[in-house]
Amino acid sequence: MVGASLIVASCGRVSEKPNGSRPPETLQMSVAITDRGVSVSPGRVGAGPVRIVVTNQTSSSTPLALRRSSGATVARTRADVAPGTAATLQADLSPGRWTLTASRQRETVLRIGARRRSGDDALLLP
User: Fold this and answer.
1) C-alpha distances out from residue 58 to 18, 71, 77, 104, Å
2) pLDDT value, residue 75
3) What is the dihedral of CA 104, 90, 40, 117, to 10 degrees?
4) Separation between Cα atoms, residue 33 and residue 86, nearest integer Å
5) What is the pLDDT of residue 125?
6) Dihedral of the CA atoms 72, 78, 79, 84 (nearest 10)?
7) What is the H or E stretch that residue 9 is in?
8) Which residues does residue 66 pair with via DSSP β-bridges, in sequence order?
């Protein structure tokens, strides 16, 4: 009887986590650079970590940069994205307006909403 009560008592819920909560799950966004401009899907997400996969569907190489509406560059590709290839950017986006620029003529605005909830209840996350 004493052993059973110890087991039940140790199954309680911990209200504080010694290492804090995990960040939100990383969302993947897709970006296509075309002769008509830059398109992104989804165009609106909650704040938190994102992985942006970019494909260059034009005939020329282009640099790629992610900037806050204030103009500060947060992420950019190491080299120009060659025609027919893909590149990846990763960033932790805060709420507000962001601009993804492929060249002076090609850019799109991302609208980032309130921070997404913690990834504590998601399985198989690091």
Assistant:
1) 49, 26, 17, 15
2) 77
3) -140
4) 10
5) 52
6) -100
7) helix 2-9
8) 75, 100
3-state secondary structure of 4: helix
Looking only at the bridges linking them, the beta strands covering 96-101 and 86-93 are: unpaired
What pTM did the predictor assign? 0.73
Decide if 52 contacts 66 (C-beta within 8 A): yes
Q: Give the integer Cα–Cα distance in Å for 109 and 82.
A: 22
Whether 68 shows a pLDDT value over 70: the answer reads yes
* pLDDT in the model for residue 124: 60
Res 11 pLDDT > 70: no
Q: How confident is the model at residue 59 (pLDDT cuts 50, 70, 90)?
A: very high
Measured at the CA of 10, the angle between CA 9 and CA 13, to 5 degrees, comes to 95
Give the span between the Cα atoms of 79 and 84, in whole angstroms. Answer: 14
- 72 token code pair: 């500060």
Sign of CA dihedral 104, 105, 109, 110: negative
pLDDT at 1: 55
